[in-house]
Amino acid sequence: MKNLTSYFLLLLFVISCSSNGQPASEQNSPFTDQEIGQMILVGFRGTEIKKDSPIYKDIKERNIAGVVLFERDVITGDTARNISDPTQLLSLASSIVANSTTPPIIAVDQEGGMVSRLNQSKGFPVSRSAEWLGNQDIEDTTRYYAKRMAQEFMVVGLNTNFAPVVDVNTNPQNPVISRYERSFSSDPDKVIEHAGYTINEYSTEGLLTVLKHFPGHGSSSTDSHLGVTDVSETWDAAELEPYKALFDTFDIRAVMTAHIYNAQLDSVWPSTLSENTINGLLRDSLGFEGVVFSDDMQMKAITSEYGLETAITQAVNAGVDILIFGNNLVYDENIASKAIAIIQEGIRTGDIDAEKVRAALDRVGKLKKEVIEDLCTCLNF
Prior knowledge:
- The chain is an alpha/beta fold.
- Strands 7-6-3-2-1-13-12-10-8 form a 9-stranded parallel β-sheet.
- α6 runs parallel beside α7 and α11 crosses α12.
- The protein is globular, with a radius of gyration of 21 Å.
């Protein structure tokens, strides 16, 4: 009996080694976990990168696409979650780059005004909200504030801004757009003008801007951070005008989706999970060839309706290239490894289209080579 037991233990060992040392998640997949890591961007806690921290392993071992930084921890109330002052932020950004295998995206939501991760309390220059700038309606003023902030990004080592917001402010009672002065105007032409000035100033500095929230969040009457947001009755095709015009005028490299449900575009899935909306409308109809970021996948518009596996599987198949897990509405230090495993399992079972993953990785790789790489090289002392 002892010999039989030893035989089975040996057999299990041989079977476990039959994949040439591949992790289980990589078996029967054309991609390594480190390649899939380029589809994941996460938030974390801490003002520095420590070798015993989960984010260190995410960056160093899992090769995640990058990080999103916050000035405040929503759950704990910590007012210096990742950002305490410019000197500390430069040190953090440098550490992220130094520990990364591939050039990392280092992003914040610096919209201006009430949505500012780099604010005066942290020692950064005053910023103005999109609404304030739209009301002033002066090109030089919008350019001044955009240029000043873009230069600040360079000083502290950031390379990506999840802005400008190009939502059209069609609902003045909107609890998540209008309430926080995040839209330039209710007039699509004014949104186009001032978003264009902002994009131009950031591009001059070589930084990445990410237009949001596709296909338009301005008409919503609820907040997608808090639950299902349905704009089926309020959304208008005019909300696509900023995207059309800006795609025609600029080399737009990245767009962020909205977690809104819009039956005019898809009667089943919200936009982030909708192939009709992303691969159909955004890519095929509007001709966008750049990188698609999801909005935070931990917002309740997603988590209250879908399990993690369904949300990730559907988003990837829909055409999302980089999944964002901000880790600031809920906190899961293992979210990167979970997401990678779900994508790998989906590829193995056929639930996730491997060719869509390959296309996503190609788009991300191109973006990093053409925009992110040079910025990171400057920090890699």
